[in-house]
Amino acid sequence: MASSSSNRQGSISSVQTENRTFSPSDEFSKKAHIPSAKKLESIRKKAAKNPVEFWEKQAESLEWFRRWNIAFKWKHPVAEWFGGGKINISYNCLDRHLNTWRRNKAALIWEGEPDGEIRTFTYSQLHHEVCKCAGVLRSLGVKKSDVVAIYMGMVPEAVIAMLACARIGATHNVVFGGFSAEALRERINDSKAVMLITQDGAFRRGTAVNLKQAADAALEHCPSIKHSLVLRRTGGEVTMKAGRDHWWHDLMRGATSNIAAEPLGSEHPHFILYTSGSTGKPKGILHTTGGYLAHVAYTTKTVFDIKDDDLYFCTADIGWVTGHSYIVYGPLANGASVLMYEGAPNFPEPDRFWDIIERHKVTIFYTAPTAIRAFIRWGDGYPLKHDLSSLRLIGTVGEPINPEAWMWYRTMIGKNKCPIVDTWWQTETGGIMIAPVPGATDTKPGSATFALPGILADVVRKDGTSCEPNEGGLLVVKHPWPGMARTIFGDKERYKETYWSNFPPTKEHQGWYFTGDGARKDTDGYFWIMGRVDDVVNVSGHRLGTAEVESALVSHPYVAEAAVVAKPDELKGNALVAFVTLKANITAGDLNKLKEELRNHVGVEIGHIAKPDEIRFTEGLPKTRSGKIMRRLLREIVAGGVISGDTTTLEDFSVLEKLRGDEE
Length: 664
Ligand code: WTA
Description:
The chain has 664 residues and is of the alpha/beta class. The chain contains 20 helices and 30 strands. It has an eight-stranded mixed sheet with strand order 12-11-8-6-7-14-15-23, with helices on both faces. Helix 4 (89-98) packs across helix 5 (123-139), helix 7 (181-191) crosses helix 8 (211-219) and helix 13 (369-378) packs across helix 15 (403-413). The protein is globular and about 70 Å long. The structure holds 5'-O-[(S)-ethoxy(hydroxy)phosphoryl]adenosine.
């Protein structure tokens, strides 16, 4: 974090004000799991007094083979939840529903990209496939605690493979299918995976991406891998290495389905998931079993208000934590029906999601701000062409959402009737931490509202004192929670250093988790996430969250997307440089005039201190494969054009080249 010349140690100036609030309709609240602010408040109060007792109660809604004897044990920074308990996640997501009417309910409805092929798995069918896959893993020598890498597209078999690992206590390491061979190799080797599950190719935006070829290249230097299982999806040419590679369909055909779910210790390693991080080597975030499931099951029920007649569609990729927690584990633990779509939102046309919602009658839709900005850019015509009236709740995750994008989402997609749940959380937190509870919380556009019951989040200064209302500071969590990461795989020092060293234990507390995000709470106590602290800049003694300036720019009718970074400036300490993309149908005319107009617009929205010093128009912004703008690269561009950091997660290299070329 940059040093501050502002008067309070570690505080960040906030300049955004938002006065609109939206209450859930009576109709929504009446039917909701948590039907009122009053009820939520009483749950929250009780949970804050005794978070462990609260989480024990949530864990009781799962099926345990043996109940825990120590609910929570803490030796900074190592947590144990539900110690002594025995549980299995696959059992809780599948077997448990087979003794109920849900056995013939759709667990997974999958739609393929190229021709709209639809495959539906009831709970009973999904259970059968998972058991067989678990049998295949066993037959290939995979044992409890072995790591299995999964490098697949958005196909049902990816879900089946994950649940099969969980069934026998293998730890999965899902690597996003858009990663390169190099990134896959690094993640396999770091996790010492013994097996790889992949597919010939994956359909994306009308073409087949060859995954097997990348896997082959990776496996040339992966000594720990003994076998690989290959799903045929595109039918493309692949080379199968004898002895190592096996076709999914061959082995599944003869597999036994008689594989009971293994009772696992509550702290058994459930999965490793690598996060890109802003610098250096990716971190293998490790999550365990009982606490993780209790957290994701509870938050799915509470935040998505999920019910048996819902059809829930989350657009995240299975390769990211959102895909893990809120496509697979949270929803299935609740016995929900999940819609999973294989491909791109703009194939064959930019209305594919709306088309899916209309045809399948989706009731809950969960996506990311980056997607919402793309929808805005593509134009209102696409959602307007479709009947979206089945929707009752919509959500977002992944980045701060600009208030104007939030308003668009509310009116265009939610038709002013669906509550929006803006959910703040991280790969490291395992599940949702700060979010509205839709039947109970009044929302404000751009705010993730409040910490959920059992989550003790706060905004503090560097010295650990709590910030005043509207004073920006560091977002911390003051009590461990069950879904939290347990370590960085193979590097517990880095885990401690990254997350637990800023606020170590004192006489008053047992150590706080530092999120890496800046935030503020307004006078009503609402949390406003200001972005990563390395996206916070100091301009003329004011620390500004660049996300706020971006929101102001995006609220201009011509602007589709904006990224704001700092450039060293003699006078101000930092100057703000804004990279701006315009909406598709805009012909801007005199660009210099437009620049001035945008600067003034920011001045009007949030005050002159936030006016970007420089505005650069661009056709695209550099993004990670999960859609986050890589501001770090933009910072390097404005600082002199040399890109020195890690670019392995960059989605489209040509964007970078263009940005460099455009420099004045
Ligand atoms: C950001 C994704 C604002 C934040 C689940 C966090 C958000 C990082 C929100 C984690 C939100 C996520 N509002 N910012 N609703 N959700 N973030 O690990 O900076 O991919 O630290 O997990 O995304 O990203 P990750």
